[in-house]
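User: Please predict the structure of the protein below. I'd like the answer in structure-token form so I can feed it into my own downstream comparison script.

Assistant: Understood. Taking the following sequence of 245 residues as input:
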Amino acid sequence: MTADTDRNLQAKISCAEFAAGFVRSGMRVGLGTGSTARWLVVTIGRRVRECSLKVTVVATSTGCAELARRQGLEPVSLQEVGWLDLTIDGADEINPDLDVIKGGGGALLQEKIVAESSDRFVVIADETKRSAALGGYPLPVEVTPFGWQSTQSRIGDCLRNAGLDTVVGKLRPGAGGRFVTDEGNHILDFSLGPVPDPAGLHDDLVKIAGVVETGFFIGHCERAVIGRNDGTILVEGRGRPGEGG
């Protein structure tokens, strides 16, 4: 492991541990999926074991649920709890408006359902995920297996209409050749470059038959906890910026 990777790991751990402080006993909490969110799950599990924290948790993927169980947590279904007090999740890219691209781990549909079923949605990320405009990270678009090539073609037309002329979508590889989500769908990844209107593009994409969901999370995030390479954190929120160490 290189020194740069070590610093990046510390950034992920720091922001996850800070955000875990938002969790209080009695809460219903959504647990995110991904390399940063895993440290959140580890931290909450430790607090349950060592500090008598009592929480009800909902996982956003099969992998997240398995990790939670290894940490002494027992996830329940969203249907069982009905609504969540708080969801904390990672991000693949985040802009100054706290709009986010997610889905690098392949769980974007469950992540969005859980985020929209929460009173509060907090994003945790290391500082490399900050961006002036969304689109530097490939946009995941979840599509149905049936007719996915046709769906891919219509997505291309939509992107060209949005002025994104040179974009090519790639089917995400996985076991057996194609990645399959927990819902049995495929994911197309689109390298867009800076997107002038992410909200408008999301709205146009989800109108296409065969598109299940996009990785644009627009207007969901209340607060972002950003980990720095030196282990300190920056908290960004709608009118609530602040430093942490």
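That's the full token string. DSSP finds seven helices and 14 strands in the chain.
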